[in-house]
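Protein in question filed below.

…
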Amino acid sequence: MADVVRRRLRTVVGLTALAELVVFVLVAAWIGLGWTIVATLVTSVLGWVLLASQGRRTLADLRQRARSREAAGRELGNAGLVAVGGLLMVLPGFLGDLIGLLCLLPGTRGLVRGALRRVVLARLPEHLRGPVRVGSTRTAPVDATDAYRPAEPLVIEGEVLRDPDRRP
């Protein structure tokens, strides 16, 4: 299993490097080698600037979620996409810059997140895919005056129900 993953990773990295080289040569033939090098340096600087600004914003969102004790799933995903996007923008290469820019900009980050979600869900076994439906049964009725009692812990009894149409 590990050999297959390593082999696939080497293949992907090799093909990506080859594609970046082909695009670099095509751009150099189109606008000249000097301007191509300048464009590569400019995109790297742009990557640093975007990484700094979006990184600060994402960390502020994470801090806010931590202060309010809310789940920070989307913010953690944004932090990961900002980190990957910044790395791709800083490394030389126009294809990586394009993907990195999609990861760094807030408007297009949702597109990348959706594409990643589809790829991950396609690789999961069917019984691990959502949605999960939860049913609840109450042992005693609750009225509005009993809704919050800080002295006693709140316990909700129930059971997890599987969709009968799905196989386990």
The helical segments are 2-31, 33-68, 73-90, 94-104, 106-123. The chain has a mean pLDDT of 81. The CA atoms of residues 80 and 103 lie 9 Å apart.
